[in-house]
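The following block was generated as part of the benchmark described in Methods. Ligand: glutamic acid.
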Amino acid sequence: MNQSTTDSKPRVRFAPSPTGMLHVGGARTAIYNWAFARHNGGTFVLRIDDTDPERSTKENTQIILRAMSWLGLDWDEGPCLDDGGQERSEGDYGPYFQTQRSDFYAQALQKMRDNGSAYPCFCTPEELTAKREAAKQAGVAYEGYDRSCRNLDPAVAQARIDAGEPHCWRLKVPLDHGPVEFDDAVRGRLSFPIDVLDDFVLVRSDGTPTYNFASVVDDACMGITHIIRGDDHISNTPKQILVFEALGAPLPTFAHLSMIWGPDGKKLSKRHGATSVEEYKAQGYLPEVMVNYLALLGWALAGETTKFSKDTLCEHFTLDHISKNPAIFDAEKLDWLNSVYIREFSPDEFLEHLVPHLIAAGLCTQQEVEDKRDWFLGIRPLIFERIKRMTEAPAMVAYLFSGPTVSLDEASVAKVLAKEGSKAILEALEQALAADDLEWDAAAIEAALRALPPALGQKPKTVFQVARVALCGNMVSPPLFESIHLIGREDSIARLKAAESAAM
Ligand code: GLU
């Protein structure tokens, strides 16, 4: 290995394969690695495991990088974001794309050839399939590669290589090794008998490295000290340990995270709803909520605090607080947490989060927000306790943006406006709002309108429902007096007049 760590601070990596979007399980792995690095003043490396040429794409890489940066998981070394598909890396241990690291794999393979821990295998795929089939026919379990090339005379093997015969390279599992054991930081001591380990392929006949080989070469070259990843990789770990040993590289600490389950106790999948960070983003969840919520899936802050910032997470994150038990993804709890964040936003924070959604819905422009900031700040009190996600906001407040007319919900018209006496109520409302001495603020508007029901001999509910439908378009809009204040005097009066045609 030509590179090694120079300090004792931990170096961790998140190593997604760009074969799809960033799954929430992967995002949790990334969060734990990031928080572990930040807690310990270490380095968080992002590496793209793109050795599967058929399923890896540049688009997926960009999607993953953007999702990481949306979550605020800044990496110290790794690919450059939005680099026009150039796949550039920054950091002393790069490149950080496995497809650009073939020299490292070639060097590592050479080292293993030299020390006798790798051997060439000339068995063709057809031969291997036939052996597998034969085992099946005979009703015996196929126990992996039968090692038929393992003891080829080295000179013969070399001659076959020189003659251009296709071959892959396999690990020569040291059969006298004894069990492969390691102390997992989450699960404790784990032990695997050596005889269950196959002489697995390190480098395929087309020259590409397998995951188990490339991953170890990279982890060793990049000086990775802790491998924090999903427990779907536990069975790979003993194989990887043998490669670390064959390369004479120090073993990192492993921490295997339990799976995330859906509410039915099955591995979280599409069946349970959205599974990628992008989908949650599109649905209006806040990045800080995603980090907070995903961090809770398998880790707890002492005192069982549920809402915490990224800084708090980093301050307290240690591996010994990671749970061995699978975590259940609870969409309702995520909704609840999102609504808590929304409720606790300051007016400015609320507006900052709201505006992109208003613009996307075509309700306003950025310039309008800048010109009428106070008006826009007035939206928060109307909705901040009613929404779970910001994406719900545009539909809820669209009536504030429709000027002198508002589209009237038919059912509300039938139930409220098309009733005897509603026209008189509309006229009285118009007069009250037009009064010269009416100061234009929500409290004054409320006082003026509350005087109407007794004067008209109507119940308050009847009067305010007429007002609500005529001004806001339906019977279930946000608070009435604050709404009228934001709609404005002129437009409110115009809307009341327009509603007269539907009234009786
Ligand atoms: N590319 C592998 C994956 O996405 C990385 C596993 C590991 O962390 O070693 O599953």
